[in-house]
Specification:
The structure holds 2 protein chains of 2 kinds. Helices cover 52% and strands 18% of the residues of chain A. By secondary structure, chain B is mostly helical. In chain B, the strands form 2 sheets. Chain B has a two-stranded antiparallel sheet with strand order 1-4. Chain B has a two-stranded antiparallel sheet with strand order 2-3. In chain B, strand 2 and strand 3 form a beta hairpin. The longest helix of chain B is centred in the N-terminal third of the chain and has 28 residues. Chain B starts with 6 loop residues before the first helix and ends with a helix. Classes of the chains: A alpha/beta, B mainly alpha.
């Protein structure tokens, strides 16, 4: 009985709150639009991932520093595979009649139709972080500018740095991200480019889903199969932590070099200890900000959208020492 | 009678664990043929050092399943406990023993919550622990700001301490399995857990309240999850906010391979441990072969189902 009343009370409250919100946005919408302060929606991937948290924080800080330039609505999905949820988010933003959508797509193809829908509704769409599929965009006859780093170039930098300490024919292994993720594939390709260029022998290349524990299992198995292994190249830093765990377990931390990608704090510490050789920094805090600024620029200038490449920097013990001093 | 007495426990043990060990031996044999260095001491030591955390979680889940309940929150509790450890040590600068105590306390709290809410409101534990799965994971991201907490050498000693080539956590896990089996088979509490799973009504009529028993079972599961968290944090020398995602399903798979019934009332801690071994050998062997990710998942699924089918036929 009391449970029932409680539930019905909650339901009533929810309905009232929902109505309130709906009428709120409906009535205030034309005024804000006329006030000339654009509304920018940031649609992120998983906020469970430190990288996207950093990205969102960068955007929020930027908005706080420039409160008169634009309003920010930031949203993320619960886990990186939840593509339908992200499509819904974009649909919600279209319904909210935002002026621009800056999106880090969870899937480079599945988000194309809804982004096209947004453009047809007169919304400026800017693609960040993970590039939308070129063929899918062509098929929809949409042109969406991409603002972000070139992952392949970045991982090539890391691979080239590692190559300096390798000899021709040295055995190396590559640990990839989630099977099929565009940025992960690009990073693997960059690693391959660098390893082929220096004549190293890639003895194993397996995905570990960006996951520390999975990477540990895989690297431990590779270590037993290849007693001469000289290096492990990981498509992100979380997996580099797993590789370090496996090397510690096998007592081969001195013989095998590890490189990663992302420059998370945990790996910075390992680079300083000399356990990880290098990683790459794609300046996550700046990616969303650049995307937002680019969207604002298009809104004011109505310029033709073009891609904009952001820098990826090599991080080593030397570069970390430099930034400290 | 006298002639059979010494042989019968061995025979009973063979009947109980034989088929599982056959599956395990087949896997080891297969991977040894397919890869170069599989059946080596070094490789077995590597696998032994990977299984402590899943084994501890499997022991807890075995108790919960035997009591005809389920705990879907174990993976998230591993993540939360480990993160509490990392954050307290790194950001609050508390001494390591205090951080570890708080980590274990997180497991206790989660276990108590699951137990009290399930028995207190007479709710299905599937729902309660599903809620806890979300609560604990959300809390994990909240306390860590989704950042991996790198601890480094202060926590290293737990996993790095080794005896005869095997790590301290491995011995902890084996000890937990032995204790778990003893409690289940040889103590009154163990009998009550089985009875609570088979027929809680009968238990109540014989004057025993099944609710405190179920609460204790959830508590055991929560505590073991937090011990697993300490081990994993030590192994990676860092607390990963995404640690333990999917671990609940992996643990349930291992326990079910070991023949524990999802309906409750029947099961064995040792068999669950062998289930963990089977899943670990499979994962390690497929990685040694460099199998495609698709293949790995399909094969793992097939082995889970096959192991349960074999178990079913054995019981007929």
């Amino acid at each position: 009985m009391s449970m029932k009343t409680l539930i019905s009370l909650i339901l009533c409250a929810a309905v009232v709150a929902g109505c309130g919100q709906a009428s709120d946005t409906a009535s205030s919408k034309p005024e804000t639009a006329k006030a000339g302060k654009p509304k920018v929606a940031l649609v992120m991937k998983s906020l469970a991932n430190a990288f996207f948290q950093t990205m969102q924080k960068g955007a929020e800080d930027h908005q706080k520093a420039h409160p008169s330039d634009y309003d920010l609505i930031a949203n993320g999905i619960e886990n990186e595979q939840d593509v339908p949820k992200q499509v819904e988010l974009v649909e919600q933003m279209i319904a909210q009649k935002v002026d621009a959508i800056v999106i880090a797509p969870a899937d480079s193809k599945a988000l194309v139709p809804v982004c096209k829908e947004a453009m047809d509704a007169g919304i400026v769409v800017v693609n960040i972080d993970n590039k939308l599929d070129v063929d899918a965009l062509k098929e929809k006859q949409a042109s969406i500018p991409f603002v972000g780093p070139d992952n392949r170039k970045g991982s090539k930098l890391v691979g080239d740095f590692l190559a300096k300490s390798l000899k021709k024919g040295d055995e190396v292994a590559i640990v990839g991200g989630l099977a099929g993720a565009f940025n992960g594939v690009q990073r693997q390709l960059g690693f391959e480019d660098a390893m082929k260029a220096c004549g190293a022998n890639i003895v194993s290349e397996q995905p570990a889903d960006w996951d520390t524990a999975k990477a540990e299992t895989i690297v431990a198995a590779i270590l037993t199969q290849h007693p001469q292994l000289k290096a492990v190249l990981c498509a992100n830093d979380s997996m580099a932590l797993g590789a370090i765990g496996a090397l510690n377990g096998a007592n081969r931390i001195k013989q095998v070099a590890v490189v990663g990608f992302d420059n998370i704090a945990a790996v910075q510490a390992l680079i300083k200890e000399g356990k990880v050789l290098a990683t790459a920094d794609q300046h996550g805090d700046q990616i969303a900000v650049e995307g937002i600024q680019y969207a604002l620029e298009i809104l004011t200038k109505k310029s033709a959208p073009q891609d904009k490449e952001l820098p990826v920097d090599l991080v080593t013990a030397e570069s970390l020492a430099k930034t400290k001093s | 009678m006298q002639a059979r007495a010494p042989g019968s426990p061995v025979r009973a043990a063979l009947a109980e664990y034989g088929p599982l060990f056959v599956v395990l031996a087949l896997l080891v044999g297969f991977f040894s043929l397919k890869t170069g260095h599989f059946a080596t001491l070094a490789n077995f030591a590597t696998i032994a050092n990977q299984i402590p955390a899943p084994s501890l979680v499997a022991v807890g889940v075995t108790f919960v399943l035997i009591a005809a309940e389920i705990d879907l929150s174990v993976g998230s509790v591993v993540g939360l406990s480990g993160s509490v450890l990392g954050v307290l040590f790194l950001q609050r600068h508390l001494p390591m023993p205090v951080a570890i105590a708080a980590c274990l306390a997180s497991g206790v709290a989660a276990g108590l919550f699951n137990g009290w809410v399930t028995t207190g409101f007479k709710l299905p534990s599937f729902i309660v622990t599903l809620g806890m799965l979300e609560i604990a994971r959300g809390a994990t991201y909240w306390v860590t700001h989704s950042q991996t907490q790198y601890i480094g050498s202060p926590i290293e000693s737990v996993a790095a301490t080794s005896l005869f080539g095997l790590s301290l956590p491995f011995y902890v896990a084996v000890f937990a399995v032995a204790c778990g089996q003893f409690v289940l088979i040889r103590t009154v509490f163990g009998r009550y857990v089985m009875a609570a799973g088979t027929n809680p009504e009968a238990l109540r009529f014989s004057g025993v309240d099944p609710r405190p028993i179920k609460r204790k079972v959830f508590l055991i599961c929560g505590v073991l999850a937090s011990v697993a968290a300490v081990i994993d944090v030590s192994r990676f020398q860092s607390a990963d906010p995404n640690a333990g995602i999917g671990l609940e399903l992996q643990a349930i798979a291992a326990v079910v391979i070991g023949g524990t019934s999802l309906m409750g009332g029947r099961g064995s801690v040792i068999s669950s441990f062998v289930g963990v071994l089977i899943i670990s050998v499979l994962g390690s062997g497929l990685a040694a072969m460099g199998a495609q990710d698709e293949v790995k998942r399909v094969v793992t699924g097939i082995v889970i189902v096959l192991a349960v089918i074999i178990d079913r036929y054995r019981r007929r």
